[in-house]
């Protein structure tokens, strides 16, 4: 291992000023979301600030992305909440300990995957499935926050219980007014403010900065309103409450075996989702900046960040979309900006944390709701549906699964649906009977072109690699064609689109050859690709083949014509 | 639905004599294995005889195979045993009730899958994985029977517990002698008897019949020995014991919801394994006889047989390898042979069951062990390993998983390994940079052939459909080639081997196009297949493409040369 990370050896001096500035700006701008996501995770709000310190430094040292910003994020927070609420009461000491265990264990899993170079596991999920998962989670997140706006106290975190509690208990009061106002302001800022500022002649860069500043302004104004009119004491507006002053010491612990066993599935799923989100975010950012990322270094960085987060702050972290966007917009060039941001956050925690004691929870809930609504990817879902029905079904199934069955079952369903679409597509191959275009060496589908055929030979092309899942489709089609064409003496399988033949397919073809042989029909191959032929050469299939292996379809046609 | 099954409307009269004879022969020959597999399943031996009556009739009416014989089989029996022993004591009323529930529920699942036309689910398992599963199960079966030979009483059914019990308690006595003698005789009959009979001039057909007769002779001789010398009473040889005389009435019941929930996973796995085994057996038999089977009708037949078995006999059944082989060897032509066999078994149960009360268990154990050893498919495992390492690993992993983790976890592992090999192969595509063979229109891999290339254009061919799992490999290769070739103005993706482009791949290609555009490089396509082009035509990828879509690689080469 290098002593210094790659970006710091040597550190490009010309980036120093922009990194310093970006670090400070990011810290100030992400304060509201750090507090909000801690709340979403069912933890004390200041936990969100703590995990924006040392974990960020850990990621800066080990990650590979130049500008990705790590910290509390929506998806990991809602996962923490939905995994732990059935086991412990949010905010209770047991709950806080379990959240730290979750961070530690998923961090170790990520570290392990990175060291074992298992970054390819992130491929288990297709984009439509990820879109479905994120959208379903976003709806769950919105539901989870409505209780702060309407003063309900649902007993569990699933959508049904929350809805029932809202119908039974919802009470409109000052919190509702503050929360709804904040939602309107934040939604307006997100959707229209930049355009409006542009129209009055403000530069896009500056406009984007102002838009990013709005959440902080809303938080400050709401706190000011509470303080000015004593809203918390006189009107019962729920606020963040006492925040421990100063920086807490790290808490080192070893997780209990029993807890690990109970949380095994959530830990694995959290690591998987963290992996997918972090790598895909880092890739998007790297492509824009013409850089490359190393998926395994990303896992090590994210894993280290979570392990550190477990000991200080006790909350799982991830690569954040809006956090990274702020980082890029503020001009960050290297991970030094992250280290600066960490120290700036340290200063905030030590100096300014008491400012947030009277921040109304409804405002944090509002900022979560607005962020979550923007995560619902209706366009992606619609696009997947139109482009490929199987992808669309996988996306909708995952989204609905998350909402109805919960996050864990939803993501499990997503993995299954990803693999099922893959299996389904590969097992329904396109198969064509070919004939020769007269006076040429070209062969085309007999159903689409005027071609000549041989009465005694059938030319069949399968447009898919042959494997355990599609061999019976090929066999069924072949036998059906043989039934239809009486008097066949040869079958030619055209292998030009076959990139692989697995062991099952090889055996089934061998069986098929013997079976056709019993009927007096020879099995031939044409245009077997080099790598496929290398592997088939020594098998019983080719060594005992009743027919021949032709280099080209035309060779076969000429030979069998005679 | 037809009133009569297809094979009986009209019934081909010329087959009547052979079907009648075959049915009677099969019944006599399969008595020992019916008793043995019931013992293997932890049920009273006569249960194996009962489920060879009405379930066989049910399968004959609904199945599609002409000669497959259904009844108690090794795999379903060991599954029953390993699923139920942790819950109830073998032979206890609770155990017997649970076995019937297992038969009923897995039968209903199979019926449902058949009616919903889900026969393709059998494709979830590749042949190497099935070979691994069957081999692992066979080893477990051998282990489970050693206790009858060595008088041990293991407390659980897993391999470790059985081994420990054998080491601690093994006692050699008359049972051991009878069992080992039976093993030697049966193994000799299986391996060498037919050859020996051939050498002394006996016809192959007659020799095969004699071989099949040996197990029954061994059973009769062993019983005779017990009766003659009072081995059970004087030397403590364990025997089958009291068999209820006559035919028991069917027991109709509804399974309890709690039991179903507890057995949900085993029920699903049992249905899956039954499905795979039955369909693959039926297919092998049908191919030999130049017939076709209907996978969904097979599921309905097997499902109906299990539902009937639940109510009469109370033991799951399946399509049996040796049972079907006996049926074919005895000359069966249609499922009428099965119906005849069912009535013959009815006669045996009513008339001859008491004959088996003094049959030594060690002989049944010996016949199970000999059958199980022949199921260990070392050749198949070795072949898969040599042909394709991924298939070999999947097979060995499944086999070891069954032996170490148990049947359920083993089959789960097998499904995962099947899918993992599929995903792994598709996600590591063969990618080649192509150049033109001088003075031709042929393009070949630059690493293998002397070809000419253009300094400003890169020609890349991916030999795999593009999907969520392999796009980053393609992207990484493409970017690496761009790094290596400074001054590129065009990239041409050759799509001749791409049979599908899923939604994820389409989006990633669109991102890639924009990214290349920012570097001043155009993305072009060549030789997109018709179905792929139809689908891509209306997407943002092709509509906003920076480059062009060429019909052939040579068109692209000519155009970009100018």
How would you describe this structure to a colleague?
Two copies of one chain form a homodimer. By secondary structure, chain A is mainly alpha-helical. The first copy, chain A, folds into two domains: 15-421, no CATH class; 431-561, STAS domain (Transcription Regulator spoIIAA, 2-Layer Sandwich), CATH 3.30.750. The first copy, chain A, has 24 helices and eight strands. Chain A has helices spanning 16-40, 46-50, 54-62, 74-84, 93-115, 127-150, 159-169, 174-199, 204-229, 231-234, 257-262, 264-288, 295-311, 321-329, 336-352, 361-375, 378-387, 389-405, 407-427, 471-484, 503-518, 530-536, 540-543, 553-561, and strands spanning 70-71, 318-319, 431-436, 443-445, 457-462, 490-494, 522-526, 549-550. In chain A, the strands form two sheets. In chain A, strands 4-3-5-6-7-8 form a six-stranded mixed β-sheet. In chain A, strand 5 (457-462), helix 20 and strand 6 form a beta-alpha-beta unit. In chain A, helix 1 crosses helix 16. The radius of gyration of chain A is 30 Å and the shape is elongated. Chain A starts with 15 loop residues before the first helix and ends with a helix. The model of chain A has no long low-confidence stretch (mean pLDDT 87). At the A-B interface, helix 12, helix 17, helix 19 and helix 21 of A face helix 12, helix 17, helix 19 and helix 21 of B.
């Amino acid at each position: 291992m290098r002593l210094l990370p790659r970006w710091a050896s040597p550190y490009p001096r010309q980036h120093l000023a922009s990194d310093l500035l970006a670090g400070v700006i990011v810290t100030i701008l992400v304060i509201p979301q750090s507090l909000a996501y801690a709340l979403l995770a069912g933890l004390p709000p200041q936990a969100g600030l703590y995990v924006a310190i040392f974990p960020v430094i850990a990621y800066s040292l080990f990650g590979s992305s130049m500008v990705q910003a790590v910290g509390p994020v929506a998806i990991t927070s809602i996962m923490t909440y939905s995994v732990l609420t059935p086991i412990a009461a949010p905010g209770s000491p047991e709950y806080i300990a379990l959240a730290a265990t979750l961070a530690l264990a998923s961090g170790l899993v990520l570290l392990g995957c990175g060291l074992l170079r298992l970054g390819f596991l992130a491929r288990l999920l297709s984009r439509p499935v990820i879109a479905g998962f994120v959208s379903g989670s976003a709806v769950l997140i919105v539901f989870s926050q409505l209780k702060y706006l309407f003063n309900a106290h649902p007993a569990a975190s699933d959508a049904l219980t929350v809805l029932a509690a809202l119908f039974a208990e919802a009470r409109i009061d000052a919190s509702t007014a503050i929360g709804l106002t904040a939602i309107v302001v934040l939604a307006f800022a997100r959707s229209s403010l930049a355009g409006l500022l542009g129209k009055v002649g403000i530069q896009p860069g500056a406009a984007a900065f102002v838009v990013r500043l709005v959440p902080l302004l809303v938080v400050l104004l709401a706190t000011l309103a509470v303080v000015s009119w004593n809203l918390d004491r006189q009107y019962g507006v729920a606020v963040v409450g006492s925040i421990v002053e100063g920086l807490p010491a790290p808490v080192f612990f070893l997780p209990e075996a029993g807890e690990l066993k109970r949380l095994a599935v959530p830990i694995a799923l959290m690591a998987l989702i963290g992996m997918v989100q972090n790598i895909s975010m880092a890739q998007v950012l790297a492509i824009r900046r013409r850089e490359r990322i190393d998926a395994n270094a990303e896992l090590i960085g994210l894993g280290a960040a979570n392990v550190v987060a477990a000991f200080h702050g006790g909350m799982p972290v991830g690569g954040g979309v809006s956090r990274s966007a702020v980082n890029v917009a503020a001009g960050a060039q290297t991970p030094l900006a992250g280290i600066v941001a960490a120290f700036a956050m340290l200063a905030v925690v030590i100096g300014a944390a008491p400012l947030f004691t009277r921040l109304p929870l409804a405002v944090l809930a509002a900022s979560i709701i607005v962020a979550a609504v923007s995560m619902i990817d209706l366009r992606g879902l619609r696009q997947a549906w139109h482009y490929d029905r199987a992808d669309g079904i996988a996306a909708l199934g995952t989204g609905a699964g998350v909402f109805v069955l919960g996050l864990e079952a939803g993501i499990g369903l997503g993995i299954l649906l990803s693999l099922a679409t893959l299996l389904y597509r590969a097992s329904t191959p396109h198969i064509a009977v070919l004939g020769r275009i007269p006076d040429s060496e070209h062969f085309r589908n007999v159903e689409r072109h005027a071609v000549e055929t041989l009465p005694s030979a059938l030319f069949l092309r399968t447009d898919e690699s042959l494997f355990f899942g599609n061999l019976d489709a090929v066999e069924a089609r072949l036998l059906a064609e043989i039934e239809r064409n009486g008097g066949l003496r040869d079958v030619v399988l055209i292998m030009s689109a076959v990139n692989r033949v697995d062991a099952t397919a090889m055996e089934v073809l061998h069986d098929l050859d013997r079976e056709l042989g019993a009927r007096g029909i020879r099995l031939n191959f044409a245009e077997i690709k080099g790598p496929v032929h290398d592997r088939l050469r020594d098998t019983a299939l080719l060594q005992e083949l009743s027919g021949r292996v032709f280099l080209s379809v035309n060779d076969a046609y000429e030979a069998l014509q005679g």
